[in-house]
């Protein structure tokens, strides 16, 4: 039975369980819902949960386990000579799966009856051309051994699917029966449902955490592979970035990229922090409600602009402007892509991050502190400078660090604004590049994932991840450490 | 209500510090204070009593123009401090608030050290010419607020770490440090326990020798204990104003009598 049907049947059983459970609960209370321990809908939901959850859980596990078990069974049928002919066991198994799938497709399309498919022999039929007719292309002629394995594969799959259908449906029915039998006016259905909801919530947060772990692990493994091919000290302390895909003479030093990242980020923060902070102070302290109601959304629009659009702005407006009015007159360079261009545009992008968070934080400072300061004869700006900003400082530092980790991870603005030349240089009007840009560079186009030139991307990614993780942890620590100092 | 006779009712001087005439306050369309006349005498504790929402805090905040920080508030009439109209355009409200200090309902120490809390006003107004002078101001203010003995060993610790009563005395020290002439207190004991309240009340009586004190309170016993003059507000009007003993023992307005005997409020 196809998977979709199993799902539909289980869900239908669940709905039926809901109705039945509800009815039984009401019946057990003689139709008076006040006697019930829980609301009638909880009894229904309880039966539904017992019907659906175990069945679907088993179904999911089964879908993962079955292919592995079958693969193992079929693999043992392949002889070593066949493996040597094809090159590797994996390639033979790919053929087996293709043939098995091809036969299924042929039956579905009516090119073969299921009996014909079962009795098909390489001696009498050209399996490759028959399957080719139904649109399944095979790399080479099908050997009897592969055909046998494919038949076995189909057989096992068929049995497995049948058993799965039976087990899942029985489980659903059993769950329904069990929960239905337990439904009684004194049964605490509400608590069971509560527990089920708790489980869902826990699962959701677990998935979020596990995903992070998974990302880190995948990066770690590839990075490990990279360091087997390329010495770690050359990566971390190398001052040259010159990957060549032809020879072994690649120089893959992290420092020029890290320098570019830091340089651009620092310029971006120098732009974003004062402007964002001052905007936040104006919004939170001075602006009237009317100004605030339209100015705040306007500032936040900046946060909604895609970074590639910022990149275009850097490429066609800011870059040439800086070159014509600053770099060339000052004799600092002739490039329109520069650290300065990317930094300034990225700073503009970060303004709403700083201002919006800081605004909220300044607003959270209790009015009583403002009153206290005004009551002592302080002016508004003295109050802001001496009372409100110190009180809000931890939160503001947190906001700045979050903006910094955005800056470090930014790619598009750098590609279009700062160029792609890795360079260790102090001149801000010189083109440089960052870690993120090089990650993209190393992984686009034809890449061989066993060469250090491609694998270096993972080491770069992990380095970035560690840096931004550090910044985020620091931000969280600062915010938490000093929060509620005033309260 | 025996404790109302506990304090002697002498008013030491009769110098008028603040005279308010025909004061009206509007919050948007709400008429919060209606035609109030009050005279605050120097070196006296004046208590404002009345049920919640009667406008006593609002009127108090007129006396140092704290209502200016609320956009919709509008004040009419005249309030003279030492014969000078505080709502005159020539008067800088910021300077005025240094002269008319304020202590709030909830203790609100700044998230700074005890020392910096007290030194805040003097620093802003440039009252100390060097560090030694500032130290002296801080010590003097903390002594006046009866906090010096408890705080002298921990001046560099945050003011927020003190107990509620200590925090409120710190706020009084902070207000005293700017050398004000009038101290406004907006229910200074409502967030405190009875012991801390007693300490503050004692302190208020001592402060009277240097400042004229105006206190808003919900507690009639407190008004009776600490004040020499009492003003009773009801629904934005000043119902009765006079000697505390007189108000509490022989009120001339039936509404005052109803309030102090607990029938309205």
Automatic annotation (TrEMBL), chain A:
<feature type="transmembrane region" description="Helical">
    <location>
        <begin position="342"/>
        <end position="366"/>
    </location>
</feature>
<comment type="function">
    <text>Part of the binding-protein-dependent transport system for phosphate; probably responsible for the translocation of the substrate across the membrane.</text>
</comment>
<feature type="transmembrane region" description="Helical">
    <location>
        <begin position="262"/>
        <end position="286"/>
    </location>
</feature>
<feature type="transmembrane region" description="Helical">
    <location>
        <begin position="298"/>
        <end position="322"/>
    </location>
</feature>
<feature type="transmembrane region" description="Helical">
    <location>
        <begin position="387"/>
        <end position="408"/>
    </location>
</feature>
<keyword id="KW-0813">Transport</keyword>
<dbReference type="GO" id="GO:0005315">
    <property type="term" value="F:phosphate transmembrane transporter activity"/>
</dbReference>
<dbReference type="Pfam" id="PF00528">
    <property type="entry name" value="BPD_transp_1"/>
</dbReference>
<feature type="transmembrane region" description="Helical">
    <location>
        <begin position="193"/>
        <end position="221"/>
    </location>
</feature>
<protein>
    <recommendedName>
        <fullName>Phosphate transport system permease protein</fullName>
    </recommendedName>
</protein>
<feature type="transmembrane region" description="Helical">
    <location>
        <begin position="42"/>
        <end position="65"/>
    </location>
</feature>
<keyword id="KW-1003">Cell membrane</keyword>
<dbReference type="Pfam" id="PF12501">
    <property type="entry name" value="DUF3708"/>
</dbReference>
<keyword id="KW-0592">Phosphate transport</keyword>
<comment type="similarity">
    <text>Belongs to the binding-protein-dependent transport system permease family. CysTW subfamily.</text>
</comment>
<keyword id="KW-0997">Cell inner membrane</keyword>
<dbReference type="GO" id="GO:0005886">
    <property type="term" value="C:plasma membrane"/>
</dbReference>
<feature type="transmembrane region" description="Helical">
    <location>
        <begin position="163"/>
        <end position="181"/>
    </location>
</feature>
<dbReference type="InterPro" id="IPR022182">
    <property type="entry name" value="PstC_N"/>
</dbReference>
<feature type="transmembrane region" description="Helical">
    <location>
        <begin position="6"/>
        <end position="21"/>
    </location>
</feature>
<keyword id="KW-0472">Membrane</keyword>
<dbReference type="GO" id="GO:0006817">
    <property type="term" value="P:phosphate ion transport"/>
</dbReference>
Automatic annotation (TrEMBL), chain B:
<keyword id="KW-0592">Phosphate transport</keyword>
<dbReference type="GO" id="GO:0005524">
    <property type="term" value="F:ATP binding"/>
</dbReference>
<dbReference type="Pfam" id="PF00005">
    <property type="entry name" value="ABC_tran"/>
</dbReference>
<keyword id="KW-0547">Nucleotide-binding</keyword>
<dbReference type="InterPro" id="IPR017871">
    <property type="entry name" value="ABC_transporter-like_CS"/>
</dbReference>
<protein>
    <submittedName>
        <fullName>Phosphate ABC transporter ATP-binding protein</fullName>
    </submittedName>
</protein>
<dbReference type="GO" id="GO:0005315">
    <property type="term" value="F:phosphate transmembrane transporter activity"/>
</dbReference>
<dbReference type="InterPro" id="IPR003593">
    <property type="entry name" value="AAA+_ATPase"/>
</dbReference>
<dbReference type="GO" id="GO:0005886">
    <property type="term" value="C:plasma membrane"/>
</dbReference>
<keyword id="KW-1003">Cell membrane</keyword>
<dbReference type="GO" id="GO:0035435">
    <property type="term" value="P:phosphate ion transmembrane transport"/>
</dbReference>
<dbReference type="GO" id="GO:0016887">
    <property type="term" value="F:ATP hydrolysis activity"/>
</dbReference>
<keyword id="KW-1278">Translocase</keyword>
<comment type="function">
    <text>Part of the ABC transporter complex PstSACB involved in phosphate import. Responsible for energy coupling to the transport system.</text>
</comment>
<dbReference type="InterPro" id="IPR005670">
    <property type="entry name" value="PstB-like"/>
</dbReference>
<dbReference type="InterPro" id="IPR027417">
    <property type="entry name" value="P-loop_NTPase"/>
</dbReference>
<keyword id="KW-0472">Membrane</keyword>
<keyword id="KW-0067">ATP-binding</keyword>
<feature type="domain" description="ABC transporter">
    <location>
        <begin position="11"/>
        <end position="260"/>
    </location>
</feature>
<keyword id="KW-0813">Transport</keyword>
<dbReference type="InterPro" id="IPR003439">
    <property type="entry name" value="ABC_transporter-like_ATP-bd"/>
</dbReference>
